[in-house]
């Protein structure tokens, strides 16, 4: 990959990825540790004719981007824990009305105001189940700036392909740390553009009638087709319906379009997993420390491996089961009380072999922390 | 165009109770748009949740039925994205001023070119008659069985103080006046608010012994007066109708175009 080399914060890498993907509308509200995303976009977006608006709160921010998306824009908002909590109702609206949007959550410690300037990965399950009701969601993460860029582009591509909100779950360390980022040339990374309807003016357009492949071609608000959008269960015209057949059909469609593509949506990196005796599973900034341990142990001839998850939801159960099949120990490294560990236990054949190595005090988990926990897991004492 | 060219017959019959004022507002809205000869495809109507919010589905525009209280936030995204579209936001009093109060004052402060039509029936109708921020002290509601102790807002004063550049009030009794105000509000460049007092005989009327729908309409006529009427001096409880604020201030989307211009020049 050749291109412009930058030395940037993770939040800036996210901005670069979003602009590369075609972001042209952003609404947000200041909150640590995500604020730099809004600051940079307020500077960058209007230079390309895009729009930036600072709304009165996070609820308004996500509502504004959903509205703008309906008119044909590629949209994003960025926040952290408390703001992400406020966004949950509208996130469900985007799920229900199938409106593409990207929501960045640069995680800090919670619950409540928590520990705003320190790292955490405590919002993993909130990203999955934060909004009410059964639903499917896509959540991506990254541990380094090149992947922050790549996953941000992916988030837009997935969001546009499946007409779904996509959550980008970064963390304070990744967001604020500075490192090298190589910007790909335009065209080097594929960009998905929204599928537009080919139905001509004057012909009855069914905004919510999926094609055979499950995709829904859109018509921009303000264009030739006038239709209704609602958060209520609705028929193929977008009109509210409480017909049990319509309700069942829609919830299945919303679940299946994501969950049936779990394998396709699984993004990950692996290091020495083929013959790993001890498999570490990690993501985000925690996986940088996990990788350090794996490299060190491999140099000593010990069979350590790392599965770094980039897609957290839908959880890639089959992938994790497969990669963990040959391992005697599976150690999940994360900075919460075991939110991904729980899913890993559900995925693997022998859940008693799954251990959690974590830190929940606002401090980045270090290789030494993991080392100490590995001693305990292997019965060697602290 | 005929009235029926503006509605989606597929969506009827509507869900409003007999005697509800919201149908009169729907009628006034269509007549205003017809008089202005705005193309149906140039209008985006965004609503929240409640009886009033259902107005969007009945109309053949680009329509978005969103979340309780959040219509103006969705509408802000649509308008800023596509300033050439006419964005109209019908709301109820609870929708606009309780759960959506923050969005209401900030949309007014930005002076974004959106027309907010607030149907004030002084009650939460869809959930069965709970008191709203406009029910008023001493009224009865299903959640105020010992009479309401909440003071109410003056929506006109609030909108004006928040920076709305067009603020008007009418009632569903004064249909022609209401229609003209909606017309002027749509034409106004900036954030416009039209409060329309609309009767809810099913809940507010029944709980507060105001009689049937006709009695409530007559009551509106008796309790309101045009701005500046001398009757107000004798009876300060009378509610004024008319256009309270009409002024020119920079509109948000135009101001953002200037931001784009400055950003591009600085490249």
Question: Could you characterize what this model shows?
Answer:
Chain A has 382 residues and is an alpha/beta fold. Chain A folds into 2 domains: 3-184, 3-Layer(aba) Sandwich (Rossmann fold); 269-377, Rossmann fold, CATH 3.40.50.920. Chain A is 37% helix and 20% strand. In chain A, strands 3-2-4-5-7-6-13 form a 7-stranded mixed β-sheet, sandwiched between helices. A 5-stranded mixed β-sheet of chain A has the order 10-12-11-14-15, with helices on both faces. In chain A, helix 3 (58-70) runs parallel beside helix 4 (81-97) and helix 10 crosses helix 13 (367-377). Chain A is globular and about 75 Å long. Chain A starts with a strand and ends in a 5-residue tail after the last helix. The relative contact order of chain A is 0.12. The mean pLDDT of chain A is 96. The model of chain B has no long low-confidence stretch (mean pLDDT 97). Chain B has helices spanning 22-36, 55-58, 71-81, 93-97, 101-110, 155-162, 175-187, 201-207, 213-223, 231-234, 252-265, and strands spanning 43-47, 62-65, 86-92, 114-120, 123-124, 130-131, 166-171, 192-197, 224-226, 239-246. Chain B has 11 helices and 10 strands. Chain B has an 8-stranded mixed β-sheet, sandwiched between helices. Chain B has one domain: Thiamin diphosphate (ThDP)-binding fold, Pyr/PP domains (Rossmann fold, 3-Layer(aba) Sandwich), CATH 3.40.50. Chain B is an alpha/beta fold and 267 residues long. The longest helix of chain B has 15 residues, at 22-36. Chain B is 38% helix and 19% strand. The chains are: A alpha/beta (382), B alpha/beta (267). Strand 9 (228-230) of chain A pairs parallel with strand 2 of chain B, so a sheet runs across the interface.
């Amino acid at each position: 990959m050749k291109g412009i080399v930058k030395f940037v914060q993770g939040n800036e890498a996210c901005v670069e990825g979003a602009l590369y993907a075609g972001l042209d509308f952003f609404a947000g509200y200041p909150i640590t540790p995500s604020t730099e995303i809004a600051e940079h976009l307020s500077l960058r977006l209007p230079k390309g004719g895009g729009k930036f608006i600072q709304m009165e709160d996070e609820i308004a921010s996500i509502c504004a981007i959903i509205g703008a998306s309906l008119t044909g824009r590629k949209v994003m908002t960025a926040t952290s824990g408390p703001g992400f909590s406020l966004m949950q109702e509208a996130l469900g609206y985007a799920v229900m009305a199938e409106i593409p949007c990207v929501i960045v959550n640069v995680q800090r410690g919670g619950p409540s105001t928590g520990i705003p300037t320190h790292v955490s990965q405590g919002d993993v399950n909130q990203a999955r189940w934060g909004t009410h009701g059964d639903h499917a969601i896509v959540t991506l993460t990254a541990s380094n700036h090149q992947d922050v860029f790549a996953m941000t582009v992916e988030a837009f591509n997935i969001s546009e392909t499946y007409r779904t909100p996509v959550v980008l779950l970064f963390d304070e360390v990744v967001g604020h740390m500075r490192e090298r980022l190589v910007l790909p040339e335009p065209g080097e990374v594929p960009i998905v553009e929204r599928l537009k309807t080919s139905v001509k003016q004057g012909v009855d357009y069914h905004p919510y009638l999926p094609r055979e492949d499950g995709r829904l071609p859109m018509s921009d608000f303000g264009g030739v087709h006038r239709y209704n959008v609602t958060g209520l269960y609705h028929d193929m015209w977008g009109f509210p319906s409480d017909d049990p057949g319509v309700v069942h059909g829609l919830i299945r469609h919303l679940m299946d379009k994501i969950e049936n593509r779990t394998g396709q949506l699984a993004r990950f990196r692996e290091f020495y997993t083929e013959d790993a005796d001890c498999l570490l599973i990690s993501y985000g900034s925690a996986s940088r420390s996990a990788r350090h341990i794996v490299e060190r142990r491999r140099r000593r001839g010990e069979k350590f491996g790392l599965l770094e998850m980039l897609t957290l939801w839908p959880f890639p159960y089959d992938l994790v089961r497969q990669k963990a099949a040959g391992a005697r120990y599976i150690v999940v490294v994360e900075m919460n009380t075991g939110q991904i560990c729980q899913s890993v236990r559900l995925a693997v054949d022998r859940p008693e072999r799954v251990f959690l190595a974590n830190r929940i005090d606002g401090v980045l988990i270090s290789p030494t922390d993991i080392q100490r926990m590995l001693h305990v897991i292997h019965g060697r004492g602290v | 165009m005929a009235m029926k060219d503006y509605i989606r017959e597929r969506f009827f019959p509507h869900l409003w109770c007999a005697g509800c004022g919201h149908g009169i507002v729907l009628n006034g809205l269509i007549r205003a748009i017809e008089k202005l000869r705005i193309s149906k495809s140039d209008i985006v109507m965004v609503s929240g949740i409640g009886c009033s919010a259902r107005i969007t589905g009945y109309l053949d525009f680009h329509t978005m039925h969103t979340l309780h209280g959040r219509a103006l936030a969705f509408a802000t995204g649509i308008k800023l994205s596509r300033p050439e579209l006419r964005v109209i936001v019908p709301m109820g009093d609870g929708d606009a001023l309780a759960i959506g109060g923050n969005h209401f004052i900030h949309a007014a402060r930005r002076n974004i070119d959106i027309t907010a039509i607030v149907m004030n029936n002084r009650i939460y109708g869809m959930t069965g008659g709970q008191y709203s921020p406009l029910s008023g002290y001493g009224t009865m509601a299903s959640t105020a069985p010992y009479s309401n102790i909440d003071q109410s807002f003056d929506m006109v004063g609030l909108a004006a103080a928040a920076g709305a550049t067009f603020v008007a009030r009418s009632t569903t009794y004064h249909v022609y006046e209401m229609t003209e105000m909606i017309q002027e509000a749509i034409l106004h460049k900036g954030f416009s608010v039209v409060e329309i007092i609309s009767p809810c005989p099913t809940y507010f009327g029944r709980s507060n012994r105001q009689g049937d729908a006709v009695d409530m309409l007559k009551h509106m006529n008796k309790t309101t007066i045009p701005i500046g009427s001398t009757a107000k001096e004798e009876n300060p409880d009378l509610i004024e109708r008319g256009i309270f604020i009409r002024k020119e201030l920079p509109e948000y989307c135009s101001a953002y175009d200037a931001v784009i211009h400055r950003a591009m020049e600085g490249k």
